[in-house]
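Illustration: Glycoside hydrolase family 18 protein.
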Amino acid sequence: MLSKTAIFLAIGVTLLVGVSLFAGQSVLESQRFQKKHNDHHRHHHKSHHTHQGEDYLKYRMKSTGIPTTLFGPYVFIYDGIYEQNPNPLQAGIPKWVRNNGSNIAILSFLDPVELEKSDVPPQRFLDSLAEAKDSSILNIMFSIGGWDFQNRFVQTNPQTVAKNAASIAKKYNVGIELDCESDGAMSWMNQFISAYRAIIPNDGVNWYSVLTMDTGASPGAFPNVEQVALNNLNNLNWVNVMVNASDDPSDNNMYWSQHKFPGNQMTVARNLVNVCDSASAMAPTLQFKKDGQPIKGILFWAALSDETCDAAAPQARNCGTTCTDCTGGVGGPGNWSCPAVTSACQAYGVCK
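Result:
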């Protein structure tokens, strides 16, 4: 939920804990990432065997219909580096989100390689569904990819990934987002969308039929991704314009009007850094219109980099992340709150 591009480019520490982001990294870094992937993969398959014969209804969301307007966060669950942080956040949907603070939460991120092998999500995703399934207004999506998994799409068969993603969507009544932050996967994305829609048509009625994708903060950030989105507007419920920089507390409205998506098929993302208690910081986002028309909604990313932490005011409230954790995304299911965002949801007409 970025530009998550800029977020993780800023997090130089990820390159030291073995995430293989670029060709030319050392063999040792690749081995460390592969070990982490293998460890998580073993856990994922343990989860698969555990839940395969269980009643999936205890994880199935009760969402009905597709809201006209959306307001809510990306919730960080896993992205390949999460558990390598020495003090990782406890992943989960925060209580303020579950308790009428949003009408959408996007759980991030599913690994395309793991998704190709199984249609059972990792346990952390299922646990989050169990927490939220009784909500009358909260709609859940699963995001596939993210910055750290950007090069793993082309390692998979897009038809198989689409089949398993569609199975998850139907089984658990969740929407699916494609967050492919790689301009080298244009063909893969087109094939995935086509295969997905062959299984679940865009019926405009059922929440599980929702399929969306991310694009860059500006149209030029990922031009091929942008073009895939434009070419598939009939197959996508909306396109999300990602954040620009993890250490920028403002929104990115200087870029939003440059995109060619119609307002009713466009959501915009902004950072929550230092705005949990600032209603005035939310105002420009709430007022934004695309070509004079309301947009589909507002989504939030709360990533922090080391640089953001250094610049943050003492005791700054960064929506669940702290300067000792510096992990991406809204995380932590505890009692912390985001009052300005909760009020903004009410002002936006989404929350009661």
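Reading the tokens back as a structure: The chain has a mean pLDDT of 78.
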